[in-house]
TrEMBL record:
One Pfam family matching this protein: NMT1
Segments crossing the lipid bilayer: none
Stretches of the chain forming a coiled coil according to its record: none
Native source organism of the sequence: Pseudooceanicola albus
Residue ranges constituting the SsuA/THI5-like domain according to the UniProt record: 37-250
Keywords: Signal
Residues in the signal sequence: 1-20
Protein name: SsuA/THI5-like domain-containing protein
Keyword S-adenosyl-L-methionine: no
GO biological process: thiamine biosynthetic process
Length: 326
């Protein structure tokens, strides 16, 4: 009888299939850092594993590259600016879509120092402004100037390496730097070292009501794998919530996979970034939601900034809410 039971158990184990985790690539829109903490949390805390995923994280060099890799199937999921997704769909009809918002407000801002006497965006008139060559903020700059009664000719714009923006401003060679709110802590520390006090003027507070970074996927892949896509969105959402509640652990998770970074720097950047994710808009609309009014506003700003026909895209075709947890 014991032998019969053992044989039966063996047959049952052989008959039961063993499924491997789904292998996916997550494409970052930039280099690893505190702003990318959630996907590292998903891997290190086992949320991705529990959802059935074996994840490879790929570094990026901008939303355009991330969108291209998603469109061509090199990656299945990734982060990219919703503005970039919309522009790509309007001009190239790429098979990508945003399936969850990450930043529900834009990260763009003017950074300056208190001694410059710049207390509002309108005060940048006549000032020297430095920006990096490839930031998406450059596309939106004319809009934010126009919204505040200014034009391109009202400022002197210089482009420099991203790492030089702070030093150029803090040494007085430039009055204002265009940077992202994800880097407030880094600029604050640089300001202190220079004996200065940092002043931050977010563009969101001056009429730029748009979504920014989003969780993006290949449309064909998602439609062919709807349950898998829902599982990944749920795991990513859980990772966002974990990182918000456990910033020290989130920072440690990033450094565990990217050891050249430091926990302190990663934590500071994540805490800056989290304010773009968890805020009053989150309380109102829900984490990850894609509000129709804000989606439409985002497309209106993108079309105006890039000189695109507003009728060239129905902004709802750039998103898909069906994978969000109910």
């Amino acid at each position: 009888m014991k032998r019969l039971c053992a044989a039966s158990a063996l047959i049952a184990s052989l008959a039961s299939p063993s499924f491997a985790d789904d292998k996916i690539t997550f494409q970052l829109d930039w280099l690893p850092g505190g702003d990318k903490a959630p996907i590292y949390v998903c891997v290190q805390e086992g949320f991705c594993k529990d959802a059935g995923f074996d994840v490879t994280i790929a570094s990026g060099r901008g939303s355009s590259e991330a969108i291209t890799k998603l469109a061509t199937g090199v990656a299945q999921f990734g982060s990219a600016g919703l503005d970039g997704v919309m522009a790509a769909k309007a001009t190239e009809k790429v098979p990508v879509e945003a399936i969850m918002s990450i930043y529900n407000m834009p990260p763009d801002a003017f950074f300056t120092t208190k001694d410059k006497g710049i207390a509002a965006i309108a005060d940048v008139k006549g000032k020297k402004v430095v920006t990096s060559p490839f930031t998406s903020s450059n596309v939106l700059l004319p809009l934010i100037l126009k919204a505040n009664g200014l034009s391109d000719s009202d400022i002197t714009l210089t482009k420099a390496d991203p790492g030089a923006l702070g030093p150029l401003m803090f040494t007085g060679q430039q009055d204002v730097a265009i940077a992202w709110l994800t880097n407030v802590s880094r600029y604050t520390n640089q300001a202190k070292e220079a004996g200065k006090e940092l002043v931050v003027l977010p563009w969101a507070e001056a009429g730029l009501e748009t979504y920014s970074a989003a969780l993006v996927t290949n449309s064909d892949y998602a439609s062919a794998n709807p349950e898998l896509t829902k599982r990944f969105v749920a795991a990513f959402k859980k990772s966002l919530e974990f990182a918000q509640a456990n910033p020290d652990k989130a920072a440690a998770d990033v450094v565990a996979m990217v050891p050249e970074l430091t926990v302190d720097d990663v934590k500071a950047m994540w805490e800056d970034t989290s304010k773009l994710i968890f805020n009053d808009m989150t309380e109102k609309l829900g984490l990850g939601s894609l509000d129709a009014t804000r989606v439409a506003s985002t497309w209106a700003r993108v079309a105006e900034a890039q000189g695109l026909d507003p009728e060239s895209l129905d902004p709802e075709t750039a998103i898909n809410r069906s994978y969000l947890p109910q």
